[in-house]
Amino acid sequence: MTYGMLSLGFLAIAIVVLLAALARAGDRRALIARWRVPVAIAALALLILTVVFDNLMIAAGLMRYAGPDVSGPAIGLMPALDLAYPLAAVILLPALWLLFRRRGDG
Prior knowledge:
Helices cover 67% and strands 4% of the residues. By secondary structure, it is mainly α. It has a domain at 27-100. A hairpin with a 2-residue loop joins strand 1 (74-75) and strand 2 (78-79). The protein is elongated.
């Protein structure tokens, strides 16, 4: 299994959970309108932090990527595929919030 396939798997799971949560929510249009900006800000912050700290950790020798399983573009020293995990988190956490909220909560 390549890093790309693993990353796509995490993203697919997060997207399926989000779609299920939105399908269950009766107020999905209002939720999307209200959550769009905060989720975008959180995504941007997580992506920037991931780029900075992944590059620092790789430069410090805490981890390294080698072999044929890593493909695609790099951002500094890190594979761009590393951004799939924080992106999946930004998708999955609001979805779980929706799934487990009490009725009437926003």
